[in-house]
Amino acid sequence: MRKLFITLIALASFQASADAYKAWDILVKSKGNIKYYPQVVNHLVEGQLYFTSVPYIKEYMYQHEGKLDKKFDLVIDEVITKVGVKQFEILPSKALEQSSSPVVKYILAKKNFRYGKYKETLAYLNGTIPKEHPVKPFALFLEAAVFSINKKYKSSITAYEECIDVSERRISSENDFERIRQLKVNRDYCIVGKARALFAWGKNTEANLAYLDLPKSSYIWPEILFEEAWNSFYLKDYNRTLGKLVTYKAPVLNYMFNAEIEVLRGLTYMELCLWNDVKNVVDGFYSKYESDSLSLKKLIREKGKDYKYFYLLAKSSREGKVRGNDLLATLMNYINRDPAYIELFEAFQNGNSEIQKTSSMNSKGMKRVFSQNLREALLTQRNLVGAYVRKSLINALKQIDNSFESMSYMKLEVLAQRKRELYLDVRKDEKRGDIAYLQRTDKQYFWSFNGEFWADELGDYVFSLKSECSE
Question: Least buried of 8, 141, 411, 459, by fewest C-beta within 10 Å?
Fold first, then answer.
């Protein structure tokens, strides 16, 4: 078996080398004329040198005038599917608009979506991506999101439902593990997107049921549980809100980061007039984040845009090496489970597999040029990973700062309430919890909590606290 495995590697390397020689021969004869680049790229792709081909594609798209050849569009489609969309998102829109590639149209739609140009986003999506194209499920998610932002909730829900259906069909026909993971995440975001649209539409009860369509085994379920808690809060089912939030204390979810969890917990206790609990939430938040967040801000200022540092920071965490304070360790753990980060990192790892192919080339000139191109593409990918890590850390700090503002408000409310109770000599009943205060349907059953978290119970906990608000 080992001999067969080595033989297969040797054959693959031989084929890559043969295709690379063809690409090199054309490149030498072209004398730098970019009109030959599509042929160069085609041979590199046949040799599975996807990242090596990227600089040639970018330069050709940047300098070429007029629409690209349809055959070259197909090659671009294949390359982007392998290396990821981020490598091409950084190109100017003018360069991308020359292509009729469905993946490039999707990239243009994403760029416009990011800038809030929703009309242009839909224009790039409508009628440009065939239903059976691999990028269609992701395009449908983007389309549904635009409808939701524009408050066209009925159209949004229809698009999300189509997204779920198309994603399912693509999953059943895929063999690549990474692609299946991406499609499952996309499908699950569409399931959640439907619930979000219903919530924004004011149909909170329907939204609550729609959230239940997301299985607990989903990659994104832990982060969506927070949205379910907010939905319960708006339904004034405060005990269920607290029950969903306590799920985050389960050891299996110790990697999760969301500073707003404690904000919602505090607001819920406020609605129940449980002021001691509000105070405990506020004090716990300051103790947990005040010092660590200041240290993290200092680190980001010192490192600036050293994307290599942030790439290595996440990579070290991925390898089990803990660096920095508790907040940084938690954020690194969380980022390493982020589907967007995983996609960027895996693409980089896949690109590294081309190093052996280029370094084994016999021609010194070919080896030097192609290795240089590969290095350029991989450095770009590494910096994209590092930039994503840095941005994630900055966003987390912004969330913490916003949460501090909410905590300050709650702190003032606690003090005001304490003064009121002091002046009125109010005494509260010390009894905590009673199943009489549980709200449940015929399909929901009561089991007492004994301090252990069980997988099938996660997200289904409900508190039984009585409101202490004055009538």
Answer: 8
The residues, ordered by sequence, that sit 6+ positions from 357 with a Cβ below 8 Å of its Cβ are: 13, 16, 17, 20, 47, 48, 49
Round to whole Å and give the CA distance between 38 and 31: 14
Residue 262, exposed/middle/buried by CB under 10 A (0-12, 13-18, 19+)? buried
Across the chain, which distance is largest between two alpha carbons, in Å? 94
Give the type of residue at 130: P
Q: Which two tokens stand for residue 120?
A: 């242009």
- HSE toward the beta carbon, residue 201, CA cutoff 13 A: 19
Spatial CA neighbour of 341 closest among 203, 221, 185: 185
Reference 405, options 301, 286, 295, 271; nearest CA is 286
For 194-233, the pLDDT digits (tens) are 999 999 999 988 998 999 999 999 999 999 999 999 989 9
Q: Report the alpha-carbon distance of residue 306 to residue 327 in Å, rounded.
A: 20
Q: Which helix (H) or strand (E) holds 260?
A: helix 260-271
**Rounded CA gap, 65 and 248, in Å?**
54
Q: Where are the alpha helices (DSSP H) in 64-131?
A: 70-83, 86-89, 93-96, 102-114, 118-125
397-443 pLDDT tens trace: 999 999 999 999 999 999 888 777 766 655 555 455 444 444 544 33
Ordered alpha helix ranges (H), 129-176: 136-149, 153-173
- The token duo for 382 is 């590494």
Number of Cβ atoms within 10 Å of the Cβ of 404: 18
Is the Cβ–Cβ distance between 43 and 15 less than 8 Å? no
Q: Which residue has the higher pLDDT, 117 or 456?
A: 117
Contact 247, 386 (CB under 8 A): no
Decide if 374 contacts 51 (C-beta within 8 A). yes
For residue 81 the two structure tokens come to: 């599917």
